[in-house]
């Protein structure tokens, strides 16, 4: 009865690695796959291998809460995130693959007068940058998301919210598979179960990577391994200003549609959406200690749920099915590092904190440009590694929406 | 912080009951947490004691062993030497301070019957969470029926063999009038005879293996002579109720529109390949059991070592004193390997004696040695039974593409095939991440074993302990409400480390 195809019809091929490539991308998550896709599509560079130590998109790509928005404070951030959002809006057609991008809007709640001032300022900044943004009072918040408790008699009363209507959520694994399929179709090699154990440097220039499948020579090595980028970069003698923390999330059982949008709250470190099948997806703030474990401390979730339930009393009887953690890599200014390193031919893309998923197509686009031209794209130029010595920081602690 | 007991025993089935009374009688301060409203576990499940009738124990084995343990429990509870929490379930165990385990417990779903009622406030579902602390743990979580998907197994009227039996033993409720009991193993017999005695007509007992399977390991099968008598009793009962017993036969499809109407059976060979023509039998109850799956949520949460047992289930590795690989964590009963109630009682007693000896309380060396011998014999017998009644190797050949494997997330066998062939999944964990089996309400308790087997079968290899482990590890032992999570108020849960201070708002 079982119908097993004779010749598996894979979404992407799974070749053995060649001995050398023009470009080796380290990390087969969303960013690595998007970078490979735009390298091939925008720049015609297809002698590319994406090396993944596990399976494609099994790291943070499988562990995030899939929120997409671009309402960051500074021009630099708004630039790259808004570029990403525009790409998201056409991505399904571009990839020829369904990604279930649902532009249901995002509310960022303000709970104190300082929150209100910061939020209003951010709305103005967003508008100047062409990002759709509105300031809403409590009643308007209630209109958009009726299940939010806007009563003033709570510990964290809702004094208002910023609202980005074009923001939303997408289906994370479909996004990864869409990029993987399209990249593989243009000749990119996607190599799973291949861990990079070292970067070979000679005369200040990158030569190759050492992997669990042997040495692979490369003209350019582009790191895209999130929290593990600093570990890989260290083997080339490059120190990255990145700290790694667990960031936890949980899902409930399936519920009827009750939550029409995405609600985030910086003050209580919580963000909630209802996924396509009906489960509530709730994210917490980062665990305050450094760790590479994909598991967080339980009391963090307990604290955040008590605050979350004050906002959403209706969820008190929803059951938690699973909790998990991703590891977020955080820089001192809560903005990413995308660009060159002191080693010639070694590029780095990391430090995205909680912003990685929403940036996927945008950073893929810019990182591919950086690889192809040896110089950053104007949108990622501000996110250089040198900014930590020059002092030209892009402080996004506020708009990152979760403390880190 | 709550009062710190010497030991927390989780589960009041054969193993847990024995462990709790033995520990308390050795002088330890014991807390006993059990999901059910009255003691006995699944094996000695019985009707609400406050409405007991003579004959409720009929069909129970070792009932006097149970009543003796229960009487000791009652005395020790009354004396305050056992803090007994019936109707409570442990959903999280952490080790917040070195040497102290914190157990988060909440009212269990089914815990309203029996002894719980009085004195415990709250609604029918769940009450407020509470914390229980102990310096050592004896985990006796037991197990539940192992299931294999088969076309139609999601129809109303299909249930686990243990479920049909639990309704009978715990609620005097017959789940159907015309029953088919199917799967493999000696457990099918008490279920079938129990249903027959309660008045159901048994259309068939369908056993996938041959009955002479124990000849594969005759020495092991003879190691517990009492079991032979038990088997004989069932044979007599089967004959008395004229129950047709079909060997080397499986249910290949369950038929019905809105509920079960019939089953389609077929003969199989030793590996489970279909050999004979189909044969249809009418039924309104189908009870399925393919051995048991130990409940490993709590042991795995604590990080104990596990292995794949003879029957293919994941079990906890313990030494000859029931110690797991984690300091202070003892495990007894089905969680260390499915082997029945007598073995579980011996393991429970031994773990209690070993723990009290480690606290420098006297334990009779002779008793310990006797228990160890009994456990070795019991293990040998269990292994022989597992070899006699294996899950047939070719069972996945009975599946059709539309057959649901994961019922919570509605993942079909076809979805799993596509995840393997289109997306390249080669192991259970990848399969889970790509196709979502085991990600729903039951978190893989029902479909975990089957998913692991399908993953390994599709990539042409044996199921490994790692496959099983990845589908058994759960961050919470069972789903709790967000309200309960939020309501936790003990000191360890509110040390205020949320990074308010590091938050800068731009």
TrEMBL record, chain A:
Its main location: cytoplasm. Keywords: Cytoplasm, FAD, Flavoprotein, FMN, Nucleotide-binding, Oxidoreductase. Transmembrane segments: none annotated. InterPro entries: FAD-dep_OxRdtase, FAD/NAD-bd_sf, Rhodanese-like_dom, SoxB. Its EC number is 1.5.3.24. One of its GO terms (cellular component) is cytoplasm. It comes from the Bacteria. One of its GO terms (biological process) is tetrahydrofolate metabolic process. It catalyses: sarcosine + (6S)-5,6,7,8-tetrahydrofolate + O2 = (6R)-5,10-methylene-5,6,7,8-tetrahydrofolate + glycine + H2O2; sarcosine + O2 + H2O = formaldehyde + glycine + H2O2. GO terms for molecular function: nucleotide binding; sarcosine oxidase activity. Its cofactor is FAD; FMN. It is found in: Cytoplasm. Residues 23-67 form the Rhodanese domain. The keyword Cytoplasm applies. Belongs to the SoxB family. This is Sarcosine oxidase subunit beta. It comes from Planotetraspora silvatica. The lineage of its organism: Bacteria, Bacillati, Actinomycetota, Actinomycetes, Streptosporangiales.
Automatic annotation (TrEMBL), chain B:
The lineage of its organism: Bacteria, Bacillati, Actinomycetota, Actinomycetes, Streptosporangiales. Coiled coil: none annotated. The keyword Oxidoreductase applies. It holds the Pfam family Pyr_redox_2. SUPFAM superfamilies: FAD/NAD(P)-binding domain (SSF51905). Transmembrane segments: none annotated. Keywords: Oxidoreductase. It comes from the Bacteria. Residues 5-347 form the FAD/NAD(P)-binding domain. This is FAD/NAD(P)-binding oxidoreductase. InterPro entries: BFD-like_2Fe2S-bd_dom_sf (IPR041854), FAD/NAD-bd_sf (IPR036188), FAD/NAD-binding_dom (IPR023753), Metab_Enz_Cyan_OpOx_G3PDH (IPR051691), Opine_Oxase_asu/HCN_bsu (IPR017224). It comes from Planotetraspora silvatica. GO terms for molecular function: oxidoreductase activity. The keyword Calcium does not apply.
